[in-house]
User: Fold these one by one.
Assistant:
Number 1:
Amino acid sequence: MSSASSSKSLSSGICYLVGAGPGDPGLLTLKGKACIEKADVLVYDYLSNPAFLRFARPDAEKIYVGKKARDHAMKQEDINALIVKLTREGKVVTRLKGGDPVLFGRGAEEAAELAEAGVRFELVPGITSAIAGPAYAGIPVTHRNHASQLTIFTGHEDPTKPETALNYAKLAQADGTKVFLMGVERMEEITNALIQHGANPDTPMALVRWATHGGQRTLVATLSTMAQRVRETGFKAPAVAVVGDVVTEREAINWFENRPLFGKRIVVTRTRQQAGELTRELVDLGADVIEVPTIRIEEPKDRRGFAELVKDAHTYDWLIFTSPNGVEAFFHWFYQLYQDARSIGGVKIAAIGPGTAKKIREYRLAVDLMPEKDFVAEGLVQAFKDREDVENQTMLWIKAEETREVIANELTGLRAIVDEAIAYRTVPEREENLEALARIKAEGADVITFTSASTVDHFMALGVDLPAGTQIASIGPVTSEAVRRHGLEPAIEADPHTIPGLVAAVKQLLDA
């Protein structure tokens, strides 16, 4: 590489050391999200929520360097070398670290390596589990009736140190609340040291595991009994520990663990990009969601042919949309070809259901026809029959490559003139789902949701046996039919056949 090109790479490369927060996607900062969106390469940790990967560009490289006790995917010195190398190559690197990058993390060390290498970097703070974890368990770390001081320390020091750097005498006598991170495996040692140096053994104490995630669990005891309770319950890391009278507030303000689907594990099989809406609604109800994106949307094989049909859209009487994906594909090309929405002319628009209609309205266009109830192909055909005589009406159906031919066959039978525009293909998701599938195998699931026949077929193609007791929730009759083709039976079918309808069905199923 010439000195000029080398200089250019050094000047264009930058590494963002981003605190990804404690786990709840809503607690990622706006700047952190922006850093993910602009990244050429994502380097992410064990404690960084995989849901954040959906914010990345489709072409972004994703490198997992997860680190947990006694199980390191990559050593710290190798991580340092990796981010330096990538940044030197002129890439935008986003290094995602759980919580805040410099609170008992290795963010400062990584920053020092980048500084020594002479490459650009930024530290992007994140919300720490030391505060968010207790808050999600209904425990405020400060409270005017209990504590006006907060002490945070680590329960996991550098194992190469000959002795602890913690002054337990001062920690034991410190007023207010004490929070320590990464200390589950040393619980007896830490609690005994605090008690031996004068801390009240009856001080209330709580451990919050996987804080702010759907799988959050909280264990309450006292300083003297917590180590025994950890052994009895098999409580594992990662967890944040909080010690102090503030723990007593949990009884009154335990909001997160009181939501209707808390403790229920639900599998979502939509595409990575589309999973967000369903996941968000389930998470808002307290569910522990495992995303297993089984399909991915790709452009049609004949892109030119589709673009030409989009170009001529204004010459038709009707545009028929049967999925939000079709809407996005259509308008992607439409605004490549035209600068003005009025170029669509006087064409009328039909949508198969509320989700598709919502996507159309995002482009500031109204929907002229939609079924009142049955949001499937048959329902849309019936809506046309109920509305008007379609004889000699020209229609452009924007569809997926593999779709039931109900609409074309039925409308042609009514003497309409129907052209089919293949807007996208549904293909198996190539990205690894090993971590999510391992969770399903190890932990089981209460419900698996399917939002289309293709999600059913591609999930079954993974060869994963559904855990005992897992129930199936289907979005509608076509999806249910696909489930039955695989020898299974849906426990419930959404009515209406929409994402909100599916969420309501899941809640009804689990309530029962």
Number 2:
Amino acid sequence: MSLFDPGDRGINPADLPLASRMRPQSLEDYVGQEHLLAPGSAIEQAIRQGKLGSVVLWAPPGCGKTTLANIIAHYSDSVLVSMSAVTAGVADIRKAASEAKSRYQLTQKTTLLLVDEIHHFNKSQQDSLLGYLEDGTFRFIGATTENPYFALNDALLSRARVLPLKPLEPSHLEDLIQAALTDDVRGVGSAECTIEPEAVEFLLQISNGDARLLLNALETGVMMTQPGTTVTLATLEQVLQRQSIRYDKKGDSHYDTISAFIKSVRGSDSDAALHYLARMIEAGEDPRFIVRRLIILASEDIGNAEPQGLILASAALTAVATVGMPESRIILAQLVTFLAEAPKSNRAYLAIDKAIGDIKAGKLPPVPLHLRNAAHSGMKEHGYGLGYKYPHDDPRGWVEADYLPENSGLSTPYYQPSDHGYEAKMGERRIRRKQKKSGE
């Protein structure tokens, strides 16, 4: 079935939501995605000539994936058949292929198969598309909000070009608002309403680049406003009590948010860290996941500059598991602000990687005899443990001794304390020990 004309589906266009009624039907009307569809660009020309081929449209919700699929089908004079990967299976793909073959034999019309939410297809379902793409039964458009390079098989990606779409810019969304308010047929122009600038700003803020959300919110606002009057900020605030948080725990939003969160803590910006923490809390993220990431950060990015960081992070893991939400937000906030404001050092992290690098490079000199374990008296006769000095026998708790193999060629020193926080004191003690050892 075609999605280009709602009448094909027995639907009165007037009964559709505003976002569907305002859907553009040509490249001239399409808003945004200039990085792909600039006049004269390769993709724009391929669409106009009906030679684009199979593609995967990757974008957040409301950026025009389905609309662009309709436009591609229009210019290629193809029949657009749609299915959702949430509910469809291999049998549906086979049925669509059979109908596409019959359609071509009867009408010479090619078929363009749109699979929405393609990331929900498993491997066998994705593989079932391959043969039909190879023999030209249909061309394929996959629409997804997830990263296709993670969600889709390499075999399918090799047959379909990935086109990343971007969230619409505020200027694009403002154009859509004005178009909807002035269009008497597809829009809400018959209500003869205007809109406050503050209300426009509010729509731009809550829509976050999502044209569907913006237009449907605008339609509700107009419906709650007397004809011939102005849609106000107060009206829209009643329509939209709060913004729906875009956060898929298995998708890009999840990884982007946790990435920004960790980088903010690492960068000692507690306000930014709390902002991303609040996003995750309100989206229902597992607090234990958040704390586990902070435990790693406490060693990787803070380390010995503030050793209490790892202790506090480890304690927080137990605390949030015991207390639960919503009170655990307080524990998380304490931990985040402590770690963000703490002095930073990644020297321990660098040190172990440097040491591992030596091992991987094959630098494995024999362990010095005086450090070897003399588990048997006969081993002592071979020099095992001979000359070892027990540090606790010295009042200083330290003795001048060599612990690394001689002439080892190792890339030491591995650990070089920074001058941040507690690690600075560690560095000072280390310098003093070296000076005593060298007799300075």
